[in-house]
Amino acid sequence: MAPEVFRATGTDVNVVILRDGDALTLIDGGYPRDVGAVEDAIRLLGRRPEDVEGMLLTHAHIDHMGAIVAFHERYGTPVFTDPTEIAHLRRDHLEQATGKDFIPMLHKHGVLPWLVRIARAGATKKLALDGALVFPSDGPLDLPGAPAPVATHGHTSGHTAYHLPRSGVIVTGDALVTAHPLSKIAGPQLLPAVFDHGGPDTLAALDRLAELDADILVPGHGPAVSMPIAEAVELARGRARA
Ligand SMILES: [Zn+2]
Question: Which domain of life is it from (predicted)?
Answer without folding.
Answer: Bacteria
